[in-house]
Design goal:
Layout: E1 6-11, H1 22-41, E2 45-52, H2 57-66, H3 70-87, E3 94-97, H4 101-117, E4 121-131, E5 136-137, E6 143-146, E7 155-156, E8 173-177, E9 185-194, H5 200-209, E10 211-212, E11 215-216, H6 225-235, E12 244-245, E13 247-249, E14 264-266, H7 268-287, E15 302-307, H8 313-327, E16 342-344, H9 359-365, H10 372-381, E17 390-392, H11 394-424, H12 437-451, H13 455-476, H14 478-484, H15 489-508, H16 514-523, H17 533-543, H18 571-594, H19 617-621, E18 625-635, E19 643-648, E20 653-658, H20 666-669, E21 673-677, E22 683-685, E23 688-690, E24 693-694, E25 696-698, E26 704-706, E27 718-719
Parallel strand pairs: 1-2, 1-15, 2-3, 16-17
Antiparallel strand pairs: 4-5, 4-9, 6-7, 6-8, 9-12, 10-11, 13-14, 18-19, 18-21, 18-27, 19-20, 21-24, 22-23, 25-26
Helix pairs in contact: 2-3, 4-7, 5-6, 6-8, 10-11, 11-13, 11-15, 12-13, 13-15, 14-15, 15-16
Amino acid sequence: MDLTKKYCVTSALPYANGALHLGHLAGAYLPADIYVRYLRGLGADVAFICGSDEHGAAITIRAKKEGISPQEIIDKYHALNKETFEQLGISFDYYHRTSAPLHHETAQAFFLKLIEKGGELEERVSEQYFDEEYQQFLADRYIMGECPNCGNPEAYGDQCERCGTTLSPTELKHPKSMLSGATPVLKETSHWYFRLDKHGDWLREWIKTGVLHGQQHHDPKAWKNHVVGQCLSWLDDGEGLQPRSITRDLDWGIPVPLPNAEGKVLYVWFDAPIGYISSTKQWASETGKNWEDYWKGNTDKLQLVHFIGKDNIVFHCIVFPAMLKAHGDYALPVNVPANQFLNFEGRKFSKSKGWGIEQHEYLEEFANFPNKEDALRWALIRNLPENRDADFKWDEFVDFYDKDLADKLGNFINRVITLTNSYYGGIAPASTATVPDNIKGLVDSLCADIEAYNLKAAATTLVEIASWGNQYLQDTAPWTIRKTDPDSPVIAECINTSLELVTLLSLLCEPFIPFTSVKIRQLLNLPKVQPGDLAAAIAKLKNGEALLPTGHKVNAPEILFAKINDRNDKSRLEIIERQKAKLEAVLKAEASTVQSPQSSVIPNPSSLMPLKDEIQYDDFAKMDIRTAVITAAERIPKADKLLKLSVDLGFEQRTVASGIAEHFTPEEVVGQRVLLLSNLAPRKIRGVESQGMILMAENAEGKLSFVQAGEAFGPGLTVK
């Protein structure tokens, strides 16, 4: 990690038209917070930037439904989300909002700069849907119809939220206005388009090789496979990049700063990422910094990193970088470590169905749960959807808390502080003991994983250090030695070594579970972690120096983590059981609906496909089925059902034509761990030589699902 550079780290601007759920937290905010807290621990100059995205049709639609103004909507959810972020320890340096005057000025100036540059924007006249009853043009989200890809009857004009396909309003079947419910008509209007089509060549080279302006900008191997795959599926699409409209006919948003542009605003996807810049400007003006130091310059001076969910990959890796380069002067991101999606107990989060829990709800319903903030952070960290979709389960929440935090980390720290007080009156005994060499190696591994955005692996290493400490105490058994030789130097060495580990853990915990770090420091009688403290500690480790001075006095022991599964105190378990009961009630209500005479949502098991004819073992043994990972995907022209997949077998790459395009978008399948029938004879399908077959499961409704091995199984392994 180069500490001579400045770091600008952003998290996706949350849309201020609703509360955020745990999937949002795991996707873009918690990972960024871990990374930034680690940078601060090293003493890096870092700006952690975010804010509310407060424009767009979705906000006006919600305002109309609730009978209030858009301003009331954004004020409500900006305040709610900002407060819950703070309560959960998400340590933004600045949390701005795109309705602020400074942002309006910044976005309008950016637009005018592109006009001034010439050739980057063009005005076009096109036909767009118009609601004759309301006498207004309809923004994408004001139009709903049937998705041409999956048949979802409630797809929006810009995207189908069932299959993820990006759409234009005219692609919808049976479009309806969300204002009047009537069928809209096409009418001419003029808008400004960003010439994204001019940027395809350099974007492709930049993403594939990391080269920009003939120089190495970043290491492309450090980018996640599903990020690169999704980008290349866009860039290598048969139609290539197309000009994108950056204005809309709306009365809510940033006015287009040109004459004769009345009633037109900047499209939210153009204005929102500029919010990172305006937020940095506001932070800099209030802290005496120069905002340009964090946005303008080469990678030898600054590093820009965007933390997002996979649904925002294209905008942060293609559209926004193209905007920045077209404007000139701005730095481009050195990494966009996008996470995949977090589901909830096997299903997608759904506010309308009561499935899931939002951030503020968690804080309210767990108000009497000790360490509720770090309990949630830790459960999410241990199950981050870094390279594939993950699933939050309450039973795992309990396991992660009890086994990792209570049994390993908390138990070790409590034993050490208790023994220090019992044997030495709370004063660190004289000893030359320092952190053992094997622990130094674990620290190096933890740091390397954070820097590579492998945050789950880093958290596992943290627990490993605590586990080693527990085993070290158990193996040394100072309580046994003390019975026969109370003055033995082995006891002092054991206690001092253990205190060194506790001090180290107090620093290493800070990025992951910062509230616990403060409590450990209080037990150690040390101030909370300050910027640069981790770097200073690592330097001491390398030099063989102690982290705590001889004679340092610690405080009395306290329980850090009272277990959830405690036979003597059921209060914490009862909170979890209430959450599970809520989900059971949802399932019962759904089952009741399904069983009604009018409903046939769930098919009868008898409608499932019957078993095929019996085969012999030798027939099965001929099949070579291997674990694999899909690294890239794209549609096959003129083939509605086919996707062209690039598949990594570990020892070689394969191309597979798979008939799953009606069930999955290319973006959805990149990064999926799959099973591949690898010795199937190659076959030409629509001009693509298919070198295998992906194994899928199909339910009675015809929905497909990937058949997968566990995350611990890498590509190329044989399935027996």
